[in-house]
Amino acid sequence: MLRKGDAVALIAPAGPLSSKEEFDRAGRVVESLGLVPRIARNAAKRDGYLAGSDDERAADFNEAARDRSVRAIFALRGGYGTMRILDAIDYDALAADPKVVLGYSDLTALLNAITQRTGLVTFHGPVAALSGFGADEIASLRRAVMSVTPIGTLRASETQTLVAGSACGRLCGGNLSLVTALIGTPYEIDTTEALLMIEEVDEAPYRIDRMLTQLRLAGALKNLAGILVGRCKNCDVDSEHPYAAMTLTRTLRDRLGDLGLPVLAELPIGHDGEQWTIPIGLEAQIKDDCIVIDSPAVL
Fold first, then answer.
1. pLDDT by residue (tens digit) across 140-159?
2. Based on the number of CB atoms within 10 Å of its own CB, is 161 exposed (0-12), middle (13-18) or buried (19 or more)?
3. Of the listed 22, 56, 105, 140, which one is catalytic?
């Protein structure tokens, strides 16, 4: 559990930040939680579309993982590049000294890799420099990483039940592009008897169809317990687009509706607005239109 005064390493394992203001904002967010920000030594670097070289980005993560005074590692932003450092991560150091690891989007690759390699719970939630951090988002983050009480029932008024039902399973997943990109790699996400989270941004319905079809063909959706779909930002096309007749909702029903699994959509997970902090690796339940987590995510 994170406590007031704990140190938080702020790292950029994927894309670069664009301004000093973003670093300052991340620091203020961490301080508002009563925590102490430590910006990683390479976090301000830029190498094309990456926040420094692969070695530099991996070194920042590993330095934080090996530092026993650091109690959490928060991603500053997503972008692209986290997959490139998966082979260089010191999973043993993190297993020997567990700490909170938080992020989303491109961090999907790292979060799920850590959980599968170490058995530790990781956290799909806001990035320190770019997320909204409204009151509900802060409350969800605090409940997940700064409290030893069970997370309890997560309910959102906008939730859509695409397929009704109840299920219990281990939470996994995150950004759909990353879930799909990991197929066939040593870091492919184990979806067996799991509740799979998926969310996207700036992907037209036919592209989401393609990714879901790839997951189907790869057998990744075969033994799931249930599916949790986040708010997919800018993923419907306008009426002038040649594929406009196939909406996102119709695409999701078409690709997921025949699996015999409960499917909830429009959850506060991902790129669109304030989001829940979800513990990857923890058991949860789908009950009606809610997610229920009956245990704490931290000790």
1. 999 999 999 999 999 999 99
2. middle
3. 105
Is 105 in the active site?
A: yes
- State what percent of residues in the chain have pLDDT above 90: 95
Examine the pLDDT at 185 and tell me if it is beyond 80. yes
In one-letter notation, the amino acid at residue 206 is Y
Distances (CA, A) of 134 to 115, 139, 260, 273: 27, 9, 36, 9
Give residues with Cβ within 8 angstroms of 198, minimum separation 6: 173, 174, 175, 176, 179, 227, 228, 229, 230
Distance CA 268, CA 229 (A): 9
- 233-266 residue pLDDT tens: 999 877 667 766 789 999 999 999 999 999 999 9
Could you say which DSSP state residue 93 is in? Answer: H
Give domain limits for the chain: 7-145, 152-293
Cα atoms in the 13 Å half-sphere on the side-chain side of 211: 18
Q: How many residues does the chain have?
A: 299
pTM of the complete model: 0.97
Q: Which of 140, 177, 266, 271 is catalytic?
A: 271
- Topology match between the domains 7-145 and 152-293: no
Q: What is the CATH architecture assignment of 7-145?
A: 3-Layer(aba) Sandwich (3.40)
Q: Is 283 a catalytic residue?
A: no
Q: Which CATH class is domain 152-293?
A: alpha beta
* Alpha carbon distances (Å) from 40 to 19, 59, 244: 15, 9, 44
- Selected catalytic residue, list 56, 63, 199, 200: 199
